[in-house]
Amino acid sequence: MDNSLEESIGESGVVLLQKEGVEIAIDRKKSRGVIITQGIIGKINSIIGYSVGGFGIIGLMLEVTENRDPFGAGLAFFFIVVGGVLVYNGLRIKNRIKRFKHYVSLISIQGITCLEGLAVNTQKSIDFVRQDLQEMINKRFFKNVSIDVPNNAIIIKGVSEQGVNPNPAYNMENFICPRCGAPGIRPVNISVICEYCGAVV
């Protein structure tokens, strides 16, 4: 997420977006505690994982070069596996938080609520985005969002009552990020956030 957006929502914790003349609020303040907790869990997993994995690698090297004890080597290998699992879990949590911020920025800047638009901007499949958002909802990253599966759209509390169309049609175009040079696809005449460097293009 770009710094200007972070500053605009930092104090109130509420993201305001304009869509077809209707102002919609996404309450990030309620989700902030969950995000912070998940971030801490991810960091703890990574730190412990690297420590345990490193201990296992050193132990395995010692067992192979000096002791040659099968039990010791097996135990060291076990530590390596456990460390790898913890590191993987930490990275998975970190990437999930990063995707959450990306989703919020797409919704707040573009007003995109259809899964197709989110999938295009994140360069993921619609099925991945649907499952990813549902997992975030289940983990309470979003507390005022649900998924309209038949229409492939997310529903923000208050949107349906105000008659906003959640699934607009898009004409797509290719673009090259001016900051990092990465290619991407975006709706015509709509700015998006580069997945690789975070620049608005």
What does this protein look like?
The chain is α+β, with helices and mostly antiparallel strands and 201 residues long. The protein folds into two domains: 3-162, no CATH class; 169-201, no CATH class. It contains five helices and six strands. The protein has helices spanning 3-10, 29-67, 70-110, 115-122, 126-138, and strands at 14-19, 22-27, 145-148, 153-156, 172-176, 183-187. Strands 1-2 form a two-stranded antiparallel sheet. It has a two-stranded antiparallel sheet with strand order 3-4. A hairpin with a 2-residue loop joins β1 and β2. α2 runs antiparallel to α3 (70-110). The longest helix is centred in the middle third of the chain and has 41 residues, at 70-110. The chain is elongated, with a radius of gyration of 21 Å. The model is unreliable at 1-27 and 159-167 (pLDDT under 50).
